[in-house]
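Model it.
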Amino acid sequence: MKRRELIKLAGAATLGSAATSVLAARAQNAAPMQMNGEEAPASKADVTLRIAPVTVALTPNHIISTIGYNGTSPGPVLRMREGVPVTVDVFNDTDVPEYVHWHGLHVPAEVDGAEEEQTPAVPPHGSRRYQFTPRPAGTRWYHTHTMAMDDLHRSTYTGQFGFLMVDSGHDPGNYDQEIFLALRDWEPFFTNQPMDTDEQGQFGPQPERPSVLDTRPNGLEVDSLIFSINDKVLGAGEPVRVRLGQRVLAHILNASAIENRSIALPGHKFHVLAMDGNPVPVPQSVETLMLGPGERVDAIIEMNQPGVWILGGMQDMIRNSGLGVVIEYANEHRQPQWLPPANALWDYTVFGRPGGGQPEPDHTIDMVFEKIPSGVGQFNAWLVNGKQYPHDREFVLQQGARYRLVFHNRTDDAHPLHMHRHNFELVDVNGKKTSGIMKDTVIVPFYGRATVDLVANQPGLTLFHCHIQQHMDYGFKALFRYA
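Modeled.
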């Protein structure tokens, strides 16, 4: 489908988020993960996930085939209770090995769902049982964690993703409606043309900008021309229906394999309560949100502007190509409206305590990120401290020590950097200090710098990587080990 056809369709109808089923996790005694054959084990699991081909009707006339969980994409919303052991059986009906990564959970490496951490794969046409105790509480998610390389039908380019909610039991419930919104791109392709980049509108200092820029031609990168929130493009589904005076709790996830995204809801603000599932020290109301792949935001939206509005991407091209959802007030019947927000800038630090104040670290690790255009055949190579993955025992942690990681981004891309099995505290972004913001994924601005503090409290192999699939595949990752 061409972009102009999508734009035409968007004006014809309204969109809502896809219905998702909820699976409640029950308490079970924890045990090591077991390898299973094609048959299910004798004991019943709390959750069953089946990896298999699915179809996604992005519009009534644009139906794609991909791989998903339990017959849908996104997969079911999983709900678990913090500290209560859970058993998950994963059945793989495809012809290739798979991994399920529990993004944001502090679980042992052998169940985290990453080959680099030596998690066993879910074999083709086989199954595997995961047993772990979910923590910490908050909005997490689950997704495939295989390598894709030049196969755009693998890994996070597919529909293998879903929300995972870990409940603490102390949710005050100060909202009237809860919605789940996953930002997605579909039908990826390779191109050597400049990609759409939401982050290019974010202006600020560039402390890592080289004095002489690399002018070599860029290698092939991945782009898309069709987007959705959950499983529908803008104009192809039911709206999110609200009433005047409601408080809506929105769980928002960037489940893209490709790009950072900025979104807004005209006339409304997002009162941000948590990022990456972790409560922020200073909740703030902002007009726009920016999320890198892997990031989540929990925000209250006060429904105080009656009408029919589009919650969607900031860039017209992206929003008109599907990245949006209609918010419809009761008894309002009109064309959905979009107005650009007055303030499009995104600043993590406004949600933290000003001025830093973290304890002095025991150790500091500098990590320098560089791009080599067409450094791997047709594709760009990505370097961490001058090398592609692997880094042989370069990053070794002492249990209990506090590490300051300084991310030097010497590339023209803004990178969403993810640390498995740990949270880290944001210390500064481009020299602006903050404290108290705990995350597992952070966007480091292009030619920018960010600093985080990590307490080494999760022994075992720990994968660090850019959450843009192609960057990770072609070198942008490192393995942290405990001494």
